[in-house]
Records
---
Amino acid sequence: MAFEGLADRLQSTIKKMTGKGKVSEQDVKEMAREVRLALLEADVNFKVVKDFVKKIKERAVGTEVMESLTPGQQVIKIVKEELTALMGGEQSKIAVSERPPTVIMMVGLQGAGKTTTSGKLANLLRKKHNRKPLLVACDVYRPAAVDQLETVGKQLGIPVFSQGTEKNPVDIAKEAIEHAKAEHLDYVIVDTAGRLHVDENLMGELTQIKADINPDEIFLVVDAMTGQDAVNVAETFDSTLDITGVVLTKLDGDTRGGAALSIRAVTHKPIKFAGMGEKLDELEAFHPERMASRILGMGDVLSLIEKAQDNIDEKKAKELEQKMRTASFTFDDFLDQMEQVKSMGPLDELLGMLPGANKMKGLKNVQIDDKQLVHVEAIIQSMTKKERQDPGLMNASRKKRIAKGSGRPISEVNRLLKQFDEMKKMMKQMSGMQGGKKGKKKKG
Ligand code: GDP
């Protein structure tokens, strides 16, 4: 999970502060030391750490804490505010050109995730903002890059402007913009060439493209897992190209968080988006406050709700609720519900968005295994239609057949049936408690 190591350390540090009726200078000193170590261990830039700790220390011994009725809480609030500020404070929005199309130039080193992110961004603009994007293949050095972008475009059903690898990238980009105008497309996302390392030729070419197409945004795509290297890359690209924002990819695999916490402070450029997985819908707008909240174990309920809204079919959810209330819930409905939850992403990622979930001992050691869901699915899929509607039919020979069909032991089949039975009982009780009152619905 993203930031896991840092989250663990910071959370145990601030836990000591919670509920403190008095905060002494010694307490602050100790906390500051622990925060410092936690950040350094997370591979945050040394200078950034120094400034950060200094700020916290100053504020924590100041009047806002001393005069507070809950000094411990106040210190935690300060840490959260400063973490938020470190990552850029407010969420940074994407530009909209007054004269469409809005042109976004994507730059970055090879392998950082530029092509994937171009596709993800186009997808997000279309899905969330109702925009009509055009993807442009300007990485003319690697024929495979053009193919890759075309594949991504095809997968998403988003048009890709490409002219092979013979032409000059500047000309391709210019023609693409004309094409977008003619087709009334409102965003042009230009996927440029990358190299394995920063080199002069690359920078020269990107500078030329920038001068000729005058983009509204220049997004630098960096791999969060490369930590301080990503920060150095960002500094170099920024000094040549004056980028407008950063997209951090592979944050899903970044347990440390050094790049996310340093880039803004070092380059003064905002992190606009975060890549949270390989799939083309796994790009999130970067919200510094929500991220700080996640790191400190306060959860990120807002993102969770947004995810649910994006992925859960409202009509289906209403039907399910109705079924639960009348206790006519079947295994088919159960399967449906599982599909919807699964579409929201890996379970441990979701759990990380719940306040305090990291701290719950029981949960911490449970390996939340998406495979278990696959097993449950296999068992349900091995039932006949009749059995799914009426689990009461189940007898020993049916159970045996289901176990064989799903490749799971009978004990697991039994367990699922029992759980389902208990769930139905609970639903009955709940709808009984609700009585005739239809107005007040309780979700859960
Ligand atoms: P490019 O050379 O910069 O265009 O990089 P690609 O777009 O080809 O991506 C390189 C690899 O990183 C691919 O295997 C992508 O699937 C993977 N990748 C990109 N973004 C993410 C992300 O946010 N999370 C994860 N886990 N993988 C990613």
---
Amino acid sequence: SVSAESMAPGQEDYVKTVIPKTEEQRQRIESSIANNFLFKHLDEEQYKDVVDAMVEKRVSKGEEIIRQGGIGDYFYVVETGSFNVYVSKNGAPPERVMDYGPGGSFGELALMYNAPRAATVVATSDSVLWALDRVTFRSILMENTSRKRRMYESFLEEVTLLVSLEPYERHKIADALESLYFEDDELVIKQGDIGNSFYLIESGEARVSKFDEDGTEFELPGLRKGDYFGELALLTNKPRAVNIRAKGRLKVATLNKKAFVRLLGPVVDILKRNSDNYENITRNVQQ
Ligand code: 1OR
């Protein structure tokens, strides 16, 4: 027989944690996780269970939240404040590899892989965190996160633009990606529009064209799997410079502007250098 408390399949041994909260605390949690990709796609009940289980943690400047090599107990979301991340490789002195601010989250790795903490995280100002226990994290947030990281892992490894990144930086990109499909000849980007997204081609091909001053449309070299587009308007804050259409069925992975800025910072010089070439390509085609 099925009791009223039984959980969905696969979650049978999970007892819900409920830490009482004021309405004001609930609202602070909501705004802290609103833009965090790990919390997207939760249904109403999962969302409530996560908020119920979170614990408020106030920390002082200089406090160590996580120590590399330690045991994973909690996953953390930043409400306010700032944090530095340090990694020590093979006993070398720790190096700063990353920082987090409001809306950021950390501490998922040890919980996902039952591994020691991969880094040390230290508050660089008085801060407020929301901590989620291991069991709730694994029961509700892990499935989606690891599925997405697995799904995009091999694809992202093949994208030339991203080869210089650390595996963990590609994980964070995977968290933020959303796949979209376009049918043959469908417009993905329209010249003159405002740019809000960055695109990577997962499969299929795209055609590129541009209207010149007298409104004649001319064709530019096309794009294939592993290529990217849509970065220029995000880098320059100018309107879309070209039209991009699906050539056959096209699958793209997209990042919104905020994620693009935050996650592709390490390759922004490569993006800029490559875009310097666009004028030459256009000139050659037009001749
Ligand atoms: P955790 O549970 O291992 C430390 O506890 C957390 O720091 C870790 O989960 C991540 O959430 C976070 N490599 C590993 N963990 C990192 C890194 C990182 N950055 C943040 N964390 N690297 C930095 C990549 C820019 C790779 C360094 C070689």
---
Amino acid sequence: MSIAHGIRTLGVLGAGQMGTGIALVSALRAKVPVLLHDRSPEQVKKGLSLMDRLLSKDVAKGRLTNEEAKEARDRVSVVGVEAGIQGLRDVDMVVEAVSENLQLKQAIFSSFAAELKPEAILATNTSSISITKIAASALPASVSAASEEGKKIASRVVGLHFFNPVPVMKLVELISALQTSQDTLDRARAFAVACGKGICFPNPLAVNNPLCDFHATEVTVSKDVPGFVSNALLMPFINEGTATREDIDTTLKLGMNHPMGPLQLADFIGLDTCLAIQQTLYEGTRDSKYRPSLLLQQMVDAQWYGRKNGKGFYEYD
Ligand code: CAA
């Protein structure tokens, strides 16, 4: 039996590549109205123009009608800087997709979690940070974690980790904090499924149903351990300097059939994000396989962030 997610309006916090992708699949696949907020109006502009490009490409390829694309785009509205994150107060779920920085995420969750509707879900798209810590930060200073109110607020926090590019990648990692309730997990999972990230049934009668011919997928639940499943597996590939960049990438592409080599992928994710993830992994486990390489640290010090600013392991126009 499928479980209803009960999300009638979604808030997305952060209009970078992840937030934009999450807003798009939510509007297009789950068909929910989305309020998108970012403290940078330029970032919002970039995000909306990426959405427009992706929708136009789907129309050009005959995967969406003009009308479907317009309906999806019309479901996305922007909450401006004046309204701030408080403009998301009335939504049924917020997906936070800001930079990979614990203090920033804690500041966000503590500033508005208590003001949301009592049943609203607070999801974070973090790639590695402890969901348990983020859930604890959702309580206002006046509310104790042991009180009924404190337990209720924290129980609505969950990790919902999408992959980049969100419209293409098939996986959502679902992570339970120590405090997360079963109801929150079930509803978050149902929402990921509605976004096209669930297992689609191979029903030949449904080939024209965008929900069914969208990328069939898996949703996994992982424990709240540093890096969850995905980045605990991925980051050592990026950190391992056993050969030249070309040889490392060629090995994984031609030898293991990865679509991109790990260093190409690191540039795609963002080297600053990779470093932040590795630091979280290393601090959380003290396992030397996660200790960020000196080269990665220096590249980030040099502001070589990868594709997003033109220089990383490789160079981009
Ligand atoms: N947003 C949306 N769609 C995009 C996109 C983007 N940024 N970039 C590419 N695409 C789409 C293209 O439009 C194209 O779609 P159609 O086939 O529908 O036209 C499709 O992806 C393939 O694109 P290209 O033909 O241009 O290029 P490609 O075949 O080399 O594929 C790729 C590009 C999909 C990115 C592929 O190289 C790939 O799968 N790479 C691995 C990506 C990956 O591993 N992502 C996970 C990163 S880790 C993460 O996100 C989580 C974390 O915690 C760090």
